[in-house]
Design goal:
By secondary structure, the protein is α+β, with helices and mostly antiparallel strands. About 30% of the residues lie in helices and about 10% in strands. The protein has three helices and two strands; from the N terminus they run ααββα. Strands 1-2 form a two-stranded antiparallel ribbon. Strand 1 and strand 2 form a beta hairpin.
Length: about 70
């Protein structure tokens, strides 16, 4: 989504090494259910984005190809 703007101050908020930090990948059909459960359980989370047909990771204005990430 070209208009998506992540709500975080720096990458350490997203990829911290804390005991309770993890990344979850969900299909779009399960997203709403997971978000409802996390809110109900008062689990803080940050949505990073969504899966597209483009083989690259985009965060805000930054992007890198999957091939480069694998190196």
């Amino acid at each position: 989504d070209e208009n998506w703007n992540p709500d975080f101050q720096n990458a350490s908020e997203l990829f911290g090494e804390g005991f309770h930090t993890f990344i979850v990948s969900l299909s779009s059909e399960h997203e709403s259910e997971a978000i409802r459960e996390w809110f109900a359980a008062e689990i803080p989370f940050t949505k990073l984005g969504h899966i597209t047909d483009s083989p690259e990771l985009k965060i805000g204005d930054w992007s890198m190809s999957v091939n480069d990430l694998e190196k």
